[in-house]
Amino acid sequence: MSSSSAEKHLILVDGSGFIFRAFHGIPLMLDPSGTPVNAVYGFTNMMMKIIRERTASHMAVIFDAGRKTFRNDIYPAYKAQRPPPPEELIPQFALVKEASRLLGLPTIEMAGWEADDLIASYAKAMVKAGGQCTIISSDKDLMQLVNDHVCMQDPIKEKIIREPEVVAKFGVQPAQMISLQALMGDSVDNVPGVPGIGPKTAAALINEYGSLEEVLAAIPTMKASKRRDNLEEHQENARISYQLVQLKDDLDLPTPIDELGCCQTQEEPLIEWLQERGFRSILARYTKGQSASSQPSSLSKTASNPTQEESKDHSHILSPAYENYETITSIEQLQQWIKLAQDTHYCALDTETDSLNALQANIVGISMAIAPGKACYIPIAHQQDNLFEEQSAQQIHVAELITAFSPLFTDPSVLKIFHNAKYDFLVFKHNGFPIPTPYDDTMMISYVQAAGKHRHNMDELAELHLNHKTISYDDVTGTGRKRIIFAQVAIDKATDYAAEDADVTLRLWLLLRPEMRSLQVLSLYEEMERPLINVLTQMEQDGILINPDLLRSLSDEFSQKMAIQEKEIHQLAGKEFNVASPKQLGEVLFDEMDMPGGKRMKTGAWGTDSKVLQELSDKGHTIADQILTWRQLAKLKSTYTDALIDQINPQTKRVHTSFNMVGTVTGRLSSTDPNLQNIPIRSEEGGKIRAAFISAPGHVLVSADYSQIELRLLAHVANIPQLKDSFIHNEDIHARTASEVFNTPIEGMSSLVRRQAKAINFGIIYGISAFGLAKQLGVSSSVAKQYIDTYFERYPEIKTYMQTTQEEAKENGYVLTPFGRKCWISGIQTAKGPMRAYAERQAINAPLQGGAADIIKSAMLDMDKAIKEHQLQAKMLLQVHDELLFEVKEEDAEKLVNLAKEVMEKTVTLSIPLVVEAGIGKNWSEAH
């Protein structure tokens, strides 16, 4: 970089901002030692380009020194919600500063001050000295500094930002950016601003009135409006926001400008450092075209993840054989493997247990992989029979294993990789191990990339991505009566099976992890799905208390009701038969009673599923109604009142459901063993079952439920003015729809008309047909079609949304939720009419149901954090669709209700408000 001694030009690099941007903009890269280096690669590449191409007399890289600054004294919530840096970024901070040093670039930071304040102070000092300043950043917070002597440069787009560019982007002069940001606030930095004022409104106010204080002074002269009310109510927040966004430009410079030399590169150490990092292309350019193949062997591929230039070549992942795994029988052997993992900076782990119930499972063994084809198995509790084995293999005691593994599990420099981490975490907790951190989960990585495309179990992913068929569990344990438990599997066979699992997990990680940035799912994984694993782990471990006596009483009650129902069915049929037998039921309904619409299945028996019975009920056949009621009671009895008693954990006296994180296309959680998400909400029997879920002594249950969340999302994503207006003004949305569709005044509206509108509102979300709506409302198909046509006439935006969403699904194969989750829609391009019609309905609903799932997951993370920050004696126990259920000490119940409403309603920002309804009770039914 050359410079004229007559011209002073200071280049300031926003180091903190650039590191994060490079980290999220460049796919994951690991150097030959296994250290993440994608941000380092981007930083080094950019700095060397600037040194080559820009002219400057002085240069420095500015960093944040820490999170707490004087702004936190002004407003404690400032940047408080920002998550900690991603685990893969933490080791890169030091490497970035090392790169700066080798390139001859001074690095500057100062405790108590942000990098932006230092940049402002250095820029002002350089201008005062008669020079020019270029700030390498695209951060809008720095645009207030732009003037005739100070410009900015976007580090990625390399676009120069001067006054015209600021005006074109924000509609105000650079000097007015402080007032603009004070009015509009900043959700990322938690700058409050004024609700309802975005950048365009803020710019309009500033252009009309002037500075922030001039805008606030003009409030009494403004026309009455929601905007004026917000300005009046929140003017103090606006003034606080002004203090938060205004940069300090008068700091004592920690390093004088004259000492910011440029740029005395340490050539030999830099070349050696680039070789160690594996930055072939940068090294080749630096050494004036020297080919990468002539570089020292330290640049050759190792067992670590490939660098950017090598990332398309997967041979080092796919080629190594799945064999010759090592069995670990001594602590000395294990310590060698742990040292390898620490040197590599990552390892894949998997547990083998004696039960699928993680909360009751004992560890039989643990497998570990540190490179493709390099894996081991540590047997712990295998039952060995010396009669059948020439020599009994030594096994490590679990206590010794905990001692040996604990430093690795808690080492922040080693990434622990799992497939279905939640199960392994529960097993580790149950067996006394610490929870591993940091961690990745290949099941969740696959899920955020391809929900709905395929399943995400290890065996299927191995065939799909690795072209490898894994050893199955049946292969080692047998099947049927001959099946043995895993603890009885011979250790050599167990090693082949278990070590392969860890090996496959690692290979999947090496293949799938780098794809997340290009597929634009990294933030969804890192900010939502991965942190949710720990939250769900704790929820499953905590479980919920059950009243077994009430369940037994309900079982008796349901049995009596079923007996009465069965008697009535027999009377209507004119004979006794087994109501639970589909074959006998079909014969009674279609052979003996000669009912219409019967269809035989391939077996020759009559079909009698709920759809068939519902159609008969719709045609007025009372016996079908009775059978449906009987079946509902039978299902509730078998699934809940009988089964829940057997599922009470003998140690905790609680029921511990398991949340499936990858079971749906839309991101919704499902629950199993027991399934607590299908208990009828509005039926009398469902309420009685919920009453059996109780709080511990001295505690109560709190239910917090999002109100009409999918309708709100529909109004938001389809941008429907009437519906948005109703939600903003807290109107009865179904009454509003009835008024629009049926041309009926809201005042004095009958409950029947409102219910019909409610059926249409929710039916539209699920792509209901005229025939389906006709059945729900008890009207003809032509009348139902007229209702739907009128609905679309009143709300044309919904029709547009439906058509656009279906077209996007057909073109891309997936739809997006409002928060960027991809939901792949199977069958959307098929020629088969019924399958395609179902896929089209799914495409319409998936962004709404998926958006609701994103919101509740975000709320779970926020509530978990809020409960800890407020030190409430509360636990989050269950998530059921749009509802969260907590157990809390009685004295903290009201605090938790208020906190839940505040946190959950603000967990995301939509164009309309979210509303949370919360209740308190000794049991779930009371709370809900």
Automatic annotation (TrEMBL):
It catalyses: DNA(n) + a 2'-deoxyribonucleoside 5'-triphosphate = DNA(n+1) + diphosphate. It comes from the Bacteria. Keywords: DNA damage, DNA repair, DNA replication, DNA-binding, DNA-directed DNA polymerase, Endonuclease, Exonuclease, Hydrolase, Nuclease, Nucleotidyltransferase, Transferase. One of its GO terms (biological process) is double-strand break repair. Its EC number is 2.7.7.7. GO terms for molecular function: 3'-5' exonuclease activity; 5'-3' exonuclease activity; DNA binding; DNA-directed DNA polymerase activity; endonuclease activity. Residues 288-315 are annotated as: Disordered. Residues 8-263 form the 5'-3' exonuclease domain. SUPFAM superfamilies: 5' to 3' exonuclease, C-terminal subdomain (SSF47807), DNA/RNA polymerases (SSF56672), PIN domain-like (SSF88723), Ribonuclease H-like (SSF53098). Residues 288-304 have a biased composition (Low complexity). The keyword DNA damage applies. PROSITE patterns: DNA_POLYMERASE_A. Residues 686-892 form the DNA-directed DNA polymerase family A palm domain. InterPro entries: 3'-5'_exonuclease_dom, 5-3_exonucl_a-hlix_arch_N, 5-3_exonuclease, 5-3_exonuclease_C_sf, DNA-dir_DNA_pol_A_CS, DNA-dir_DNA_pol_A_palm_dom, DNA/RNA_pol_sf, DNA_polI_H3TH. Residues 325-517 form the 3'-5' exonuclease domain. In addition to polymerase activity, this DNA polymerase exhibits 3'-5' and 5'-3' exonuclease activity. Belongs to the DNA polymerase type-A family. Single-chain monomer with multiple functions. This is DNA polymerase I. It comes from Commensalibacter communis.
